[in-house]
């Protein structure tokens, strides 16, 4: 394969459509070295590759220069630090599913992880990758938004913490700088019953048409995916429910608060209908 | 770069961003691993890396440096699960079969039908309707998990 001029235009049906030879990658043995490279020579981090290699296969991969961080085991740990649940950015969905700490602290993240792809994807996809990829349909993102998770960004010189609700600035756009790496996600203890639901074309595989996570607290915490350019909390709906609105009124508030669109996976009308139905189901199931 | 392929140390001269799938098929000549969708939906390219089922079309080969990779060829031609697939007619056109078998290998002990469905949720079959596949996997595990005095499991 070395020196292969790439498979583009080879006419081979189904073959990779981005020329491999056009790609450049560095790999590193430690986080410190990874951060030094990002400082001096910014490039796209690659870990489980479950999104980036889909783009590679479809010929839509834009980055050409990569930093392979898959082997940085120091970013795989799931621990408790003081009151916080701390999930390393390279924790895979499989490790989230198997983690007793996640099961007890954030069971709806286990629910979400179980519904992300098949086992093969769960074994490779990482929580940090889902955040960095920034798809509005990312299944872990409503869970993280509903519990006000904090994204820990580290660069060679500094570390900063950004609430996930302030992490995205637009469609697949984030506050991350090129020299920063997502190293962990922090979640404070969550009071109230957690609830997650994903609606896709089939049960455990498809990309979401709608995804929602909720916490039934005195002021409910509710976040949706696939209804706006980024994952969104719905504060007006939350407030309506907290102030004792009927679920019908709250559903009306929700329908004014989200802006689903037509795309290849679904229609705005369907998404609006399902979003309001899911709000009702959340309220019923957790009541 | 080096990795262990079906139990044997292997060295390949490959770009680190080459897909594991392509290296297996074109460099190593192991064409049992199939390419299907190229997006992690169909599971036809499933192999085991350090015992875990993964889609080889979504893996830069540089990431399996020093790892253990097992493909369908690593089972030989006489694995009990392969016989169950034949006996239950769990294969028709055969494209999904290597991936189905590799995914099924990572099942835990005494799986239920629901466990098998979950383990194979990432593998699509357009021929069989899945029932025969689930039956083959369940029968394999029943015989494997039974306290057999002289198991032929390899």
Fold and architecture overview:
The complex is a heterodimer of chains A (287) and B (154). Chain A has 287 residues and is α+β, with helices and mostly antiparallel strands. Chain A contains 11 helices and 14 strands. In chain A, the strands form 4 sheets. Chain A has a 5-stranded antiparallel sheet. A 4-stranded antiparallel sheet of chain A has the order 11-12-13-14, sandwiched between helices. In chain A, strands 1-3-2 form a 3-stranded parallel sheet, covered by helices on one side. Chain A is globular and about 55 Å long. With 154 residues, chain B is an alpha+beta fold. Helix content of chain B is 30%, strand content 12%. Chain B is built from 5 helices and 5 strands, in the order ββαβββαααα. Chain B has a 5-stranded mixed sheet, with helices on one face. In chain B, α2 crosses α5. Chain B is globular and about 40 Å long. The two termini of chain B are 28 Å apart. At the A-B interface, α2 and α6 of A face α1 and β4 of B.
Quick summary of this structure?
The complex is a heterodimer of chains A (287) and B (154). Chain A is an alpha+beta fold.
Features of this protein?
A: 287 residues, alpha+beta, B: alpha+beta, 5-stranded mixed β-sheet, 5 helices, 30% helix, globular
Class from helix and strand fractions of chain B:
alpha+beta
Counting H and I runs of at least 4 residues, what is the number of helices of chain A? 11
* Overall morphology of chain A: globular
Largest interface: A-B, 37 and 39 residues
Query: What is the N-to-C succession of helices and strands of chain A?
Result: EHEHEEEHHHHHHEEEEEEEEEHHH
Biggest pleated sheet of chain B: 5 strands, mixed
Strand content of chain A: 15-25%
Distance between the termini of chain B: 28 Å
Low-confidence stretches of chain B: none
Shape of chain B: globular
Average pLDDT level of chain A: 92
Main structural class of chain A:
alpha+beta
> Largest beta sheet of chain A: what is the strand line-up?
4-5-10-6-7
- What's the total number of strands of chain A? 14
Strand order of the largest sheet of chain B: 2-1-5-3-4
CA radius of gyration of chain A is: 20 Å
Number of strands of chain B: 5
């Amino acid at each position: 394969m070395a020196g292969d001029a790439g498979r583009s235009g080879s006419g081979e049906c189904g073959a990779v459509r981005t020329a491999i030879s056009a790609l450049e990658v560095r790999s590193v043995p430690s986080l410190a070295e990874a951060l030094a490279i990002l400082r001096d020579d910014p490039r796209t981090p690659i870990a489980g590759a479950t999104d980036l290699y889909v783009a590679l296969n479809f010929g839509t991969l834009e980055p050409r220069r990569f930093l392979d961080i898959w082997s940085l085991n120091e970013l795989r740990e799931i621990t408790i630090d003081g009151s916080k649940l701390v999930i390393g950015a390279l924790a895979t969905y499989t490790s989230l599913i198997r983690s007793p700490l996640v099961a007890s602290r954030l069971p709806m993240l286990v629910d979400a992880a179980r519904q992300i792809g098949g086992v093969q994807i769960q074994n490779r996809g990482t929580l940090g990758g889902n955040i960095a990829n920034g798809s509005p349909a990312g299944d872990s993102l409503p869970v993280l938004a509903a519990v006000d998770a904090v994204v820990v960004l580290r660069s060679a010189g500094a570390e900063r913490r950004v609430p996930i609700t302030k992490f995205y600035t637009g469609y697949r756009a984030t506050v991350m700088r090129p020299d920063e790496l997502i190293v962990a996600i922090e979640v404070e203890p969550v009071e109230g019953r957690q609830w997650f639901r994903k609606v896709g074309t089939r049960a455990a595989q498809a990309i979401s048409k709608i995804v929602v996570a909720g916490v039934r607290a005195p002021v409910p915490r509710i976040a949706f995916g696939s209804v706006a350019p980024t994952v969104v909390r719905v504060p007006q709906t939350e407030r309506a429910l907290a102030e004792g609105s009927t679920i019908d009124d709250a559903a009306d508030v929700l329908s004014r608060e989200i802006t689903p669109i037509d795309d290849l996976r679904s229609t705005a009308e369907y998404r609006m209908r399902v979003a309001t139905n899911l709000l009702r189901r959340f309220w019923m199931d957790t009541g | 770069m080096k990795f262990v392929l079906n139990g044997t140390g292997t060295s390949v001269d490959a770009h680190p961003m080459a897909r594991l799938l392509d290296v297996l098929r074109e460099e190593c000549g192991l064409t049992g691993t199939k390419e299907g969708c190229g997006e992690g939906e169909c599971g036809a390219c499933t192999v085991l890396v350090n015992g875990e089922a993964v889609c080889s079309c979504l893996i830069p080969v540089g990431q399996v440096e020093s790892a253990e990779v097992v493909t369908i060829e690593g089972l030989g031609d006489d694995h009990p699960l392969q016989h169950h697939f034949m006996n239950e007619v769990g294969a028709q056109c055969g494209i999904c079969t290597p991936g189905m078998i590799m995914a099924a290998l990572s099942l835990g002990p005494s799986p239920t039908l629901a466990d098998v469905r979950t383990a194979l949720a990432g593998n699509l079959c357009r021929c069989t309707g899945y029932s025969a596949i689930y039956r083959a996997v369940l029968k394999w595990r029943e015989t494997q998990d039974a306290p057999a005095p002289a198991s032929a499991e390899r």
